[in-house]
């Protein structure tokens, strides 16, 4: 009986010592289709998002567009906090081999909204990414 109580007490203490859920923009994210995984982390004075995993179809599209593999590509660069709480920087679209402006808004602890625009804001797209 004492061993059971000791085991329960240890488990409770270990659970209490676990870190709180990740918050903020830094961390691992996946797009809604779960075809690309991105790690957002500090890159000098800003944040960047680097592809850590991609489905074969996405990798092939990137190779056709940019001539490079999608794995290791920085899709988001130079992200800095704006006055309105969003993050502003640059986005790379490897399938089209195009760079544009990026705005990232954190919807909640588990969702971000990434908007990218090219051609001086004429072509824009927004995606939701989910923490994993």
From TrEMBL:
One Pfam assignment: DUF2147
Keyword ATP-binding recorded: no
Swiss-Prot/TrEMBL keywords: Signal
Signal peptide: 1-24
Designated name of the protein: DUF2147 domain-containing protein
All copies of domain DUF2147, residue ranges: 27-131
Highest taxon listed in the record's lineage: Bacteria
Species the sequence originates in: Sphingomonas canadensis
Xref: Gene3D superfamilies: 2.40.128.520
């Amino acid at each position: 009986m004492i061993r059971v109580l000791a085991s329960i007490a240890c488990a409770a203490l270990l659970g209490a010592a676990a870190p709180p859920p990740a918050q903020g923009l830094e961390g691992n994210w996946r797009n809604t289709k779960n075809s690309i995984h991105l790690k957002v982390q500090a890159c000098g004075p800003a944040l960047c998002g680097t592809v850590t995993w991609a489905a074969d179809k996405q990798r092939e599209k990137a190779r056709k567009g940019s001539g490079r593999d999608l794995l290791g590509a920085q899709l988001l660069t130079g992200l800095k906090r704006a006055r309105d709480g969003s993050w502003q920087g640059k986005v790379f679209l490897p399938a089209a081999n195009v760079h544009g402006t990026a705005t990232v808004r954190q919807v909640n602890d588990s969702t971000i909204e990434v908007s990218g625009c090219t051609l001086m804001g004429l072509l824009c797209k927004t995606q939701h990414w989910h923490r994993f």
